[in-house]
Each structure stands twice: as C-alpha cells, then as structure tokens.
Amino acid sequence: MVIGLSQASRDRARAAAQTLASDARERIGALTDEIWAASRANRDLLENLIAAEVERAATRLGFARREDVVGLRASIDRLEAEIKTLRAERATGTRPDPDPGP
User: HSE (CB half, 13 Å, CA atoms) of 76?
Assistant: First the structure.
C-alpha cells in the first residue's frame, strides 16, 4: 500500500510538473511574440524618425530631393534631344518654318 501511495504521489507530481512546464512554454511563447512585435514597431519608428531628420537636414542644407533631380534630368534629356534635332535640321537645311504667318 505504501508503494502504491508513493507511486500515486509521484504521478501527481509529474502531472503537476508537466502542467507547469506547459503553461511556462505558452507564456514564454506569448512573451516572445510580444517582444518581437515591440521590437519591430520600435525599429519602424526609429527608421521613420531617422528619415525625417535626414530630410530636414537635407532641406536645411539646400540639397535637392531625388524626385526633383530625376525630373530635371528628364527635362534636360528632352531639351538636349530637341537641340540635337534642331542642329541636324539646320545643318541639312530641312528645318521647317516654325511660324509660316498669314
């Protein structure tokens, strides 16, 4: 009988330990997810803060934004192509009269 009681106590202790371990795993998993989400949110906030500060500093220093430079480059390319065409037409004498008038 004593052996039976001892075995029952051991089984209950084992079951209790497994329950505690399972709860701990769940809590650790949830805590890990929370830490991961907070870390990601903090990283995003930091990236946005740095980008805003860089933008302010660049504006203060008079740097052009990438979009502005790209737009200007496209305009320059278009004007250079137009000049090249006009020079070629003038050299060959095939340039049409831009304003024939009345």
Answer: 6
- In angstroms, the Cα distances linking 72 to 18, 21, 36, 68, 85 are 69, 65, 43, 6, 20
Residue 62 backbone class (left: φ over 0; alpha: ψ -120 to 50; beta: rest): left
Give the pTM. Answer: 0.48
Q: 69 lies in which domain range?
A: 64-93
Sign of CA dihedral 51, 57, 58, 59: positive
Number of domains the chain contains: 1
101 part of a folded domain: no
**Tell me: the pLDDT tens digits for 15-54?**
888 888 888 889 999 999 999 999 999 999 999 999 999 9
**Both structure tokens of 61:** 């220093």
Dihedrals phi, psi of 94, to nearest 5 degrees: -105, 15
